[in-house]
Amino acid sequence: MSVYVRTILGSTLITKLKEECVKFRDASQAGMTVVYLTVETLFGKSQILGGDAHESHFVVSVLVHSYQFSPAFPYSTEQIRAALRTHFRFEP
Question: Is the per-residue pLDDT at 92 higher than 70?
Fold first, then answer.
């Protein structure tokens, strides 16, 4: 993922969510928020039928295998990775 996307998802997103008093109910919700915002930032509205699922799967594979979440997130990188692995049925 580009530095631009990491910056958006790292500091700007966390700052904005804190300003709006947003609380995640669990690590899965925190991870899926990052997935959704990343897909929207990188791909926008896909013109390919079913493309959104493929795009999400790709983003999740990158997040699960190599992305370090900001320490400002209320959940650790490992907690979010575990939740995304479970949700998308990735092997550990």
Answer: no
In whole angstroms, give the CA distance from residue 86 to residue 75. 16
What's the rounded Cα separation, in Å, for the pair 92 and 71? 22
Contacts 24+ apart (CB under 8 A), 57-63: 57/88, 59/35, 60/35, 60/84, 60/87, 60/88, 60/90, 61/90, 62/1, 63/31, 63/34, 63/35, 63/38
Burial string for 49-85 (b: 16+ CB within 10 Å, else e) reads eeeeeebbeebbeebbeebebeeebebebebbbbbbb
25-71 pLDDT, tens digit per residue, is 898 888 888 888 777 777 776 666 556 777 788 888 888 888 888 77
Q: Residue 52: CB partners within 8 Å, gap ≥ 6?
A: 39, 43, 46
